[in-house]
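Backbone-to-sequence.
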């Protein structure tokens, strides 16, 4: 992507690759894009599916690796599991800030208490908890595997957060969501249809289609420009110069968006052929959706001022 096009980018995104955790069912609201943007992209909440998934990953990567103590008083005890005991002591002392003598040696009781906390805590505390566990559990190769699978899950459930260098980091900002919401609320007709479809394809939990999400986002801008200029037809590349004259679009913005359109239309671009080997990921699709939404809001504002 050329620098002039990148200049309109709101945020630099993190490259997240293949989703390995696949769902089997997409409900009505998700298929038809009826969930609000802030729920489609989980920025200030965690839904039940995501919370369940994160707990399951803790179970698979940490809780299930407990050794049984045989003998007269056989069972699962922290005293027989050095790494898990060390983690629980750190949780009690630094995270929960409880007296260490309240930490039971019976792992089943400790697990019950951890589970009760996890499923009753606030959404941001879930991220606090998994980040703490990821960085403090010293079982061999735990951290790497847990973080990889967590990031796959976070992408599948369209969370606004990922593990980056061991820390939970927001990769979708509030102002990005606001741009999408504003554009969807203000637009109608083909503009709204293309923009809504771009969001649906991006946030599909079962089979996200990032390539076609990009196509729909740029098609929303094309539709807006055609409506604004009252043109019968034309591509964004053809009409962007006319838009500059019509609403007073700054030449630098015209050049930037013209280059961005070129990125989606050239030989290796998104809109060339769906069989191209060019990789389109979540970050590409989200970038285009946010930028196209911002451009739609910008043009709508200009048209409103002009009257």
């Amino acid at each position: 992507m050329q620098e002039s096009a990148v200049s309109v980018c709101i945020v630099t995104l993190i490259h997240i690759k293949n989703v390995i955790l696949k769902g089997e069912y997409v409900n009505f609201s998700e298929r038809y894009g009826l969930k609000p943007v802030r729920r489609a992209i989980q920025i200030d909440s965690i839904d039940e599916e995501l919370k369940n998934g994160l707990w399951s990953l803790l179970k698979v990567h940490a809780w299930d690796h407990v050794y049984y103590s045989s003998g007269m008083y056989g069972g699962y005890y922290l005293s027989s599991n050095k790494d898990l005991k060390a983690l629980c002591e750190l949780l009690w002392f630094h995270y929960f800030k409880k007296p260490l003598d309240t930490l039971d040696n019976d792992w089943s009781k400790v697990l019950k208490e951890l589970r009760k906390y996890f499923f009753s805590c606030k959404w941001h505390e879930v991220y606090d908890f998994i980040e703490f566990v990821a960085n403090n559990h010293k079982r061999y190769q735990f951290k790497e595997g847990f973080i990889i699978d967590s990031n796959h899950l976070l992408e599948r459930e369209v969370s606004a957060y990922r593990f980056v260098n061991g820390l939970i980091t927001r990769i979708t900002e509030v102002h990005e969501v606001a741009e999408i919401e504003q554009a969807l609320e203000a637009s109608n007709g083909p503009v709204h249809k293309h923009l809504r479809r771009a969001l649906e394809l991006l946030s599909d939990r079962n089979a996200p289609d990032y390539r076609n999400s990009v196509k729909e986002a740029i098609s929303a801008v094309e539709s807006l420009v055609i409506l604004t200029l009252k043109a019968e037809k034309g591509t964004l590349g053809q009409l962007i110069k006319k838009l500059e004259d019509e609403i007073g679009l700054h030449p630098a913005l015209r050049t930037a968006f013209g280059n961005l359109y070129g990125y989606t239309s050239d030989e290796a671009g998104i809109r060339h052929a769906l069989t191209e080997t060019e990789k389109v990921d979540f970050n590409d699709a989200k970038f285009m959706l946010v930028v196209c939404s911002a451009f739609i809001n910008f043009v709508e504002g200009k048209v409103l001022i002009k009257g």
